[in-house]
Design a protein that fits this description.
The complex is a heterodimer of chains A (334) and B (364). With 334 residues, chain A is an all-alpha fold. Chain A contains 14 helices and two strands. Chain B has 364 residues and is α/β, with parallel strands linked by helices. The chains are: A mainly alpha (334), B alpha/beta (364).
């Protein structure tokens, strides 16, 4: 057990570096993709571009932090888009909007997180108490989340945000970066602290590495697994609320495309879907790789028709290089 | 104990002939039921679309309700939720229940599911009016009276009309970027063609780039964000193939404080209308099309109803009654107040062909 001399966030960084849990292959891939794009696009290596990429990545980074813990333990959370849908609708209907008299202001964001956490709790209980595989449970909670969003939407108009503070949160910057990026940063630091300084984080690796050994060591696997799903729900909920600030509306499609993006980012980053290896930093780098690729497509003016092919090929190359060292014992998710 | 071969042969022959006879009867049974005129009380009005979380379908449903009310009936709304198989099974259930007095106004989730829907309706003798999507070669005139009518919007005319509004606001010169819909949608392609057609008439307008934003608002915001990184101050105007992407682009422009850029879209979404009204007519959201949703919902059912009651015979109809484009109306700051009212209120169905803009050629 390493001696943690420093406390707080700095200590977490040192803990990660000293343990060697840096996502080196993922960082190399990011470097290569960036270098390639930089040579062909003069706008790529600008501060503004980095700010924009970080802004586009912010929502996915928030949800990927929660997803990482679930995957580290060997489970999966497919409900991301459904949770984002309900949280987005809940937030949009609680903050000052044009459909009702509610005026919760910034409190609508924690409310969105609570909605997400509750959906995550349902999943957590179903997986640990009823012993249903997380794949099936979270498909169900995905639908529950979407259904709840449809109910909240009703059949009237799309709620649009009127609260000036919320709109400013989506549009304004702080020290050059969008406020959404700062929220994502806080989430990342918090989750890195969880990963290195708490039992939840450290045992996640053990549970994912071998559930049997974890149980025999006396680790309360059920509680930690359920907790990971609650956290994933809460963070997906936060992602949904942030989308409300950025887009200015509440929409059932708030989470469109985020599941693929999130899981691809986690895999590309180097976290094994079977669990036990990887981490928060890995997934964050993974998100940056995915977003950089899609931004590069536009900066390089790649014809829409080829974008899918190019994107898929690059992802394939990156995943192969990241997973190169784990070729032999590669297992797939349950 | 073996049954004697003679008895076995006769038994087999008897069973075979019964089987053959029932097959013949069943085949005869599934030929299209005669589409006899239905009395009003037996008619079942059905509206099928993606889902009511989409304001477009909310408006369609209001149009359907307006027509149903005008003839003293109820209508049923069914949501396909983006699932073609679900849409088909919902419709076949209704056909089993209502038979040849079903009037189905359907927005097929994908054009590929339409033939199956039409075949099921043909077997029941029902009438189907189709919105937006049909596979190439499957037209009302070719298929028969089951495929009662087809209506769509002229994407080319829409893309052209909003482009012209944008170019006028730009005083005829400058650079634009374009956000397209999903590239395999015919409507996305024809709207873009409309933009290209408008550009021929305005030679001082230059298209810097076009990218797909998949009809989605968040995607539109992201793509616009990156285009601003690439082209920055060079962008003077934004053409988008639908309001959702346009609203997303508007958010990206606001984040970069680009209040000098105009955006145009299509669909007539409530939020887009609000932006046009709050704007100055030259920058921000400038123009969109007035939604025909209520017309598609109301007149779609009206036409099917006319066929089902026998007051109009599709077999003897003019080509533009079987397949037509709806009229294209543009909403700008000048007429936004009138255009953004709830257009389903006060709808009259005295002439069911009021909706016809122009005929859709057979080869389209």
């Amino acid at each position: 057990m390493e001696k943690m001399t420093n406390s707080g966030k700095l200590g977490s960084f040192k803990a990660i570096i000293s343990r060697g849990n840096l996502p080196i292959p993922a960082l190399l891939s990011l470097l290569i993709v960036s270098a390639f794009t930089a040579t062909r696009s003069p706008e790529f290596l600008t501060f503004d571009n980095f700010v924009q990429i970080s802004d586009q990545a912010s929502v996915t980074i928030i949800l990927v932090c929660g997803l990482t813990f679930v995957i580290l333990m060997g489970s999966i959370d497919l409900s991301v888009q459904g949770v984002m849908a309900s949280a987005s609708m809940a937030t949009a209907l609680l903050v000052g909007n044009d459909r009702n008299q509610n005026n919760w202001g910034y409190w609508s964001i924690p409310a969105g997180m609570v909605v997400g956490a509750l959906i995550g709790l349902i999943a957590g209980l179903a997986v640990t108490r009823l012993r249903i595989p997380s794949f099936l449970v979270t498909m169900a909670t995905w639908n529950i989340g979407l259904g709840l969003a449809y109910v909240l939407f009703g059949n009237t108009s799309q709620p649009s945000v009127k609260d000036k503070g919320m709109l400013a949160l989506g549009l304004e910057t702080f020290l050059g970066f969008s406020k959404a990026t700062w929220i994502a940063l806080v989430v990342v630091l918090f989750c890195m602290w969880l990963q290195t300084r708490t039992k939840f984080g450290r045992y996640a690796y053990v549970i994912g590495g071998s559930e049997e050994i974890a149980k025999l060591s006396g680790i309360n696997v059920k509680s930690f697994r359920a907790l990971s799903l609650v956290l994933s729900g809460a963070l997906s909920g936060l992602a949904g609320s942030v989308i409300v600030a950025k887009s200015g509306i509440g929409a059932v499609q708030a989470g469109e495309g985020q599941l693929f993006l999130g899981i691809a980012a986690v895999v590309i980053g180097g976290t094994l879907l079977s669990g036990g290896r990887g981490g928060i930093l890995h997934s964050v780098v993974g998100v940056y790789i995915m977003i950089t690729i899609s931004v590069a497509m536009i900066l390089l003016d790649v014809s829409d028709f080829y974008q899918q092919i190019v994107q898929g090929s690059v992802v394939l190359l990156v995943v192969s290089s990241t997973a190169w060292r784990q070729r032999r014992p590669l297992r797939t998710v349950v | 104990m073996k049954v004697s071969t003679g008895r076995t042969k006769r038994l087999v022959a008897a069973i075979a002939s019964v089987g053959l006879a029932s097959t013949v009867i069943m085949t005869v049974g599934v030929t299209p039921a005669s589409a006899a005129a239905c009395e009003k009380s037996k008619i079942k009005l059905v509206q099928s679309g993606r889902g009511l979380e989409n304001p477009y379908y909310v408006a369609v449903n209001k149009g359907s309700a307006a027509f149903a009310k005008s003839v003293g009936l109820e209508h049923q709304w069914i949501s396909s939720e983006g699932d073609s198989q679900k849409q088909l099974s919902q419709i076949t259930s209704i056909l089993a229940e209502a038979g040849n007095c079903a009037v189905i106004n359907v927005d097929p989730n994908e054009s590929s599911i339409l033939p199956a829907i039409l075949d099921a309706a043909k077997a029941a003798g029902a009438h189907v009016v189709v919105q937006w999507n049909r596979p190439a070669g499957v037209t009302p005139l070719k298929y028969g009276t089951t495929f009662t009518s087809f209506m769509s919007e002229d994407g080319n005319a829409q893309g052209y009309a909003i482009a012209v509004e944008l170019f006028k606001a730009m005083n005829g010169k400058g650079n634009i970027v374009a956000l397209q819909g999903m590239l395999d949608n015919t409507v996305a392609q024809s709207r873009f063609k409309g933009l290209k057609r408008a550009m021929k008439e305005y030679p001082n307008i230059k298209l810097l780039a076009d990218q797909t934003a998949k009809w989605d608002q968040n995607e539109g915001q992201k793509v616009m964000q990156t285009m601003l990184t690439k082209y920055g101050k060079k962008i003077n105007g934004v053409w988008t193939a639908n309001d959702s992407m346009g609203l997303g682009a508007l958010q990206a422009l606001r984040a970069k404080k680009r209040t000098d850029v105009g955006v145009v879209g299509i669909d007539g979404l409530e939020l887009a209308m609000k932006e046009i009204k709050a704007g100055n007519g030259k920058t921000g959201f400038i123009a969109t099309t007035v939604s025909n949703a209520h017309i598609q919902g109301g007149y779609g059912l009206a036409i099917g109803y006319a066929a089902a009651t026998g007051s109009w015979d599709p077999a003897k109809a003019k080509p533009e009654e079987r397949a037509f484009y709806l009229k294209t109306v543009i909403a700008t700051k000048k007429n936004v107040d009138a255009a953004s009212k709830d257009l389903s209120i006060g709808m009259k169905f005295t002439n069911i062909w009021d909706a016809v803009g122009s005929v859709i050629p057979e080869t389209a």
